[in-house]
Specification:
mainly alpha, single chain
Length: 82
């Protein structure tokens, strides 16, 4: 939830920075604003994914354990082949 909120704030700050750059004619500030918007969107999406995983783990704990065991098995197999 916190990542989603921070992402939204970053995205909004990026929009403001982009607009300030457009008004002042500063392309560097505009570019930074666009980059900040993209980073905010990525952080918001990350937060949504984490929340969805957390919700799934709470509602389906056995499936979550099975997925983690399978992931551990795959990582172990890859690790030993090195």
């Amino acid at each position: 939830m916190l990542d989603q909120a921070e992402g939204t704030v970053q995205k909004l700050a990026g929009r403001v920075q982009d607009a300030v750059g457009a008004v002042t004619g500063d392309t560097s500030t505009q570019a930074e604003g666009k980059a900040r918007q993209a980073a905010g969107e990525a952080q918001k999406t990350y937060g949504e994914v984490v929340d969805q995983i957390r919700e799934t783990a709470v509602t389906n704990p056995l499936v979550s354990v099975a997925v983690l065991v399978g992931l551990g098995f795959v990582l172990g197999a890859v690790w030993t082949k090195r």
